[in-house]
Amino acid sequence: MGYQIGIDVGGTFTDFVLVRPDGTFDLTKTATTPYDESKGVVAGLGDMAAAEGLSLADLLHATDAIVHGTTTADNTLIQMNGAATGLITTEGHRDEIEIRRGWREDIWDIHLGPPEPIARRRHRIGVPGRLDHKGNVLVPLDEEAARAAARRLRAMGIDSIAVTLLFSFVDPTWEARVGEIIAEEFPDALVSLSHEVAPSAPEFERTSTTLVNAYIGPRVVEYLQRLEEELEKAGYAHQLLVMLSNGGIATVEAVCHRPITVLASGPAGGVVGAADTGRTAGSTDFISVDMGGTSYDVCLARGGQPDVKSFWNWIHRYLITIPVVDVLSIGAGGGSIAEVKAGGLRIGPESAGADPGPICYGKGGTKVTVTDANVYLGYLNPEAICGGRFALSAERVADSINDQIAGPLGISVTEAAAGIFRLTNAQMNQAIQRVSSERGHDPRRFDLIAFGGNGGVHAPAQALDLGFPRVLVPKAAPALSALGILLADHVVDRAKGCVSQVERLDLGLANSILAEMRLEAEKELANANVAHHQIGHTATAACRYPGQTFTLDVPVHLDEDTFTEKSRSALVADFHRLHEELHTFATRDEPVIIVELKLRATGETPRPRIAPLPAADTSVSDAEKGRRKAYFDGDFVDVAVYDGTKLLPDHEIAGPAIVEETFTTVVLQPSQTAVVDAFGNYVITGGAA
């Protein structure tokens, strides 16, 4: 096996992990290039090649796999700079996307307006034609009206068209025909058909998902195809693989067919990497936290697996009904801006980003950030940041904290910096509680796996606040998302609407739907060069009680890939049990409604084998690189600083202490101890109640 490279594009940095054939790995970072992410990607690959003593062409020739996580879809939706998008829908239903089921993110904020529309009202056109919920024709499709709609949208300068006809998930014939008409009248348009993007009810969710796919699609397709071409020209001979929001990977071809599958995919790679770290440390129940430069991503996992949601996913104010790893993200990172508002301290969600960045970057940043506070408190060493590749300066930090924070609050600079650190932790603790205690899980029964460039700085203090028994900081923490991307399997998710009481479900229909989805998934995996014997299937059903507006995904127990009477009985019993676990009650005398059937096909990939570190032949003192003043327990104290690259398995460090890795720092609080495991991960214990 040759080299394997994982690439994760973040808001501030683009992270790279290169795994060598012998199982050793190297990390690097480059500044993210928001105007064209591919520039930062190619620059980072060049840096990695140089570090290996190779040309870029030689490195790519020797590379078996490149897996890429992109934020293009998210950035497009956040910045609302996607394609000019139109909608063709059933007559009388063009305003569903703005009605939004009457839902508003903050019901107490009367000033909160609707999101900026993806397709303005004049770009949404209704076409006569109506099916009922069983697929029977009530009003024939008016093909001439559909043709006129396509012409009208072309004349309006539309680039991408979403098509969502009522009950097309029951019978997609009309919707497919409208797609053909658009291709005849407007061949340059990118067309998103709802029965291919989100083939299930309810109507608003399907329309929202399809519109978002149409809106972000052209930018995602253009970017991935451009990057694939650049890599091919540079010497890469294999398929470029892309991280998906469901925690799996897919080919560029598959993503270009459904670009929405990469929306919100950024955190998924980190969760996969955290699960691998937990596995090596014997931890199956954990909460992973990723603190980078812009955001803080939290995910709870049980049995080594995170929850995957496919219902009621509000992403950047639009509802998306695709499977998404259940990650809660808040605006808290190293670049988060600290400021005084209404007489109090506020952190984020605004970020200084990569350019100009924090004040200590010396690139023109003028606003105090979390990173600036950590530099002042002695947790970060400007000379050691990113292995010395980024020159930082603490000269203006103290004055800026005094002018912007301490002065307005009437406190000292030290109190202000410590307050920034504590308030940042408090906000991140609230995010952890939202995915744990607010859902009935005691965080004291979980391990905390912290990664990202800033995770190791804050997580040990958070563990004391919340009572975590252990904190795991992976050796690859600053680029764990990039490593996790390499560890992910090919995953294909398919879903199809199938509304019925479970007791009355037509088993023949259910098996026909499952067989069709299985065939589609296996075809996609075959295109990704996944052998048939490497493919596994799991089926679930989205179920609810009558009158409920939300569903639960319940495992379907198949007998040799067949939905049987036994499967039916188990589905009903499992739904009642899961509903009681999640909502404290179950009404077992009520019928269970099945809304849609889902199939997940997983294709195993050759994962890189990370080699363990050599046994320690030195003492911990050999890794001590000096001492410096840092803030602990209300005062600056003299603490030991260790070179993480020299720490080996079974080395033990007592806090307070600071460990400096090339791209991250671990800050041990008093009463805590860190032990290095066989793979260089830091296992931190002590101090928790």
Kindly describe this structure.
A hairpin with a 2-residue loop joins strand 21 and strand 22 (344-351). The protein contains 17 helices and 35 strands. Helix 5 (143-155) crosses helix 6 and helix 12 (397-409) packs across helix 13 (413-435). 32% of the residues lie in helices and 27% in strands. The protein has four domains: 3-76 and 221-262, ATPase, nucleotide binding domain (Nucleotidyltransferase, domain 5); 80-215, Dna Topoisomerase Vi A Subunit, Chain: A, domain 2, CATH 3.40.1360; 266-295 and 331-489 and 613-689, no CATH class; 493-603. It is an alpha+beta fold. The strands form nine sheets. Strands 13, 14, 15, 20, 23, 24, 31, 34 and 35 form a nine-stranded mixed sheet that branches. The radius of gyration is 26 Å and the shape is globular.
Describe the structure in brief:
The protein has 689 residues and is an alpha+beta fold.
Characteristic key phrases:
689 residues, alpha+beta, 4 domains, nine-stranded mixed β-sheet, six-stranded mixed β-sheet, 35 strands
**Number of DSSP strands?**
35
Percent of residues in helical segments?
A: 25-40%
Give the number of domains. Answer: 4
Biggest sheet layout: 9 strands, mixed
Judged by helices, strands and strand pairing, the structural class is: alpha+beta
Mean pLDDT: 90
The percent range for strand residues is 25-35%
Q: Evaluate the radius of gyration.
A: 26 Å
The gross shape turns out to be: globular
Which residue ranges are poorly predicted, with pLDDT under 50 across at least 5 consecutive positions?
none
Alpha-carbon distance between the two ends: 46 Å
- Give the helix tally: 17
